[in-house]
What we know:
The protein is of the alpha/beta class. The chain has helices at residues 21-28, 137-156, 175-181, 220-224, 242-246, 249-257, 276-292, 307-321; strands at residues 3-6, 11-13, 16-19, 34-42, 48-53, 55-57, 60-64, 84-87, 91-96, 105-108, 123-131, 187-195, 203-205, 208-209, 216-218, 228-230, 263-272, 297-301, 325-332, 353-358, 362-365, 370-373, 395-398.
Amino acid sequence: IKDIQFGDEEKIVDGCLYVDPKKLEDLVLEDSRVKSVSFDIARPGESVRIVPVKDVIEPRAKLEGGECFPGLFREDMQEAGSGITYALSGAAVTTTGPIVGFQEGVIDMSGPMTDFTIYSKLCHLVMIIDKQDHIDQHEHEEVVRLAGIKVANYVGKIGFDCKDYVSEHYEWKSIGEKYAEYPDLPKVVYVYNCMSQGLLHDTYFYGRDSKVMVPTMITPLEVMDGALISGNCVSPGSKTTTYMHQNNAVIEELFKVHGKEINFMGIVLNPLMTTLKEKFRDRMLTVREVKMLGADGAIISQEGFGNPDTDLIMNTKKIEAEGIKTVIITDEYAGRDGKSQSLADADPSADAVVTGGNANQVIVLPPMETVYGHLEFVDTIAGGSANNIDAHGNITVEIQAITGATNETGFNYLSAR
């Protein structure tokens, strides 16, 4: 998708996606908890700012083989990861409106921010949604989350009639078949940490809050079909949006080298919990499942910072102690001068680290001609500060305020080895 336009006929022509805003509005207003909703379009290069960003979702829908985003809107469900999925690459449904939690972000479509986030390169269908007055904060998050997914699935179906597409085929075999397929290649497992802390810091797996889960083996094809969605307002620079789950960069790279350099054995989804007892339980189960998959090596990605640093290092220490080499992907909160301790926990066994950058680094964002959402929240979001807009309209924030700037699945532009 190279452009989005409003129109009465919903279609894709020459890379332009046409959507009917009235149909989208009626769809969202099916939820009586929604007071109002409106839609705008933001394109790369435009002088447009979106704030506060809650989630970004790639429009996807199943032509056959079940449904995308299973477990959200129907009582029954089919395992994701089979059949035919249509993905409108280059497009995004982006949710905003009055702030839910202070850890929501900013996307600029032009200016210096474009060097920091992939989202400046996408065409956004921006949904500005407001809830009924009696809805509390946690239900507000649910209203916005479900509305964004519903619109993304609806828009994804517009692709069914489009004949101009690139087809990609993925296959996922049983553990036994995979183990025997490439016996001479190192077997690699992906430990996929997801935010599961409550307080608007949640991830959903087949519609179930990951706080009530234990570490679970999943397939990458389930992730592509939207079995994992973001429900969190964790620091926008590092949080894994639904778009980033759908297009997980670690999974993409593992598929590229599978059968050539490594044998990609599978994924262990690990919820990042708050108490020490839960962390020990999840470490025990994560390590057990990594070993059951026969891993020689493990890649561990993170979400968030501070408390989750403990899970990251605990798992690294234990997996390394089992003779399995690890690589961790994280970002850093090293202070604006870069001199503070980067992670809240550390260990010598964590000796292979990919960093997504120092989230405390400061950037000045120039004013944009158009704002979708509510600019007044820019001083209260993570990375913002009181009175951070000067007389000329310039905004000073830490890069953690930029949605996706330091993402810990590697879906960003900053890195070091």
